[in-house]
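Please review this one:
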Amino acid sequence: MSDNPQLRSLFNTANALAALQEQFAHVAPPYFAQSSQVLGLQNGTLIIAVSNGTLAAKLRQLAPQVVEKLQNKGCEVSAIRVKVQVNYAAIPPKHTERILTRTAQHQLLELSRNLTDSPLKLALEKFSKKTRQG
């Protein structure tokens, strides 16, 4: 770490913002964690950027519950201010691989066997075989 006080201050601010973003992501509904960004904390007000007005309206509606959850996690937040930044590029959603249980795979295969030849039957057969291999 540099002895430069300005760099140290910038580093500490970046770490604090990253920690706030992580805390926000844990307490907010998942779609906010992926489509919003913590901009800062000023006098107890957490400032959050979202990419559109619909998300802003929903977050303003949920703000009291989010603030309470943040406070329960030890964050010194008393309010949330939401900014719409249309040019803000949302964080792409994380790809989570979903795995079917063997029972679900078997049921899909059985369902496909009971169907007449159709695109749905082909799709179910392909899906059940793909999930078993993957």
Remarks:
- The first helix runs from residue 5 to 27.
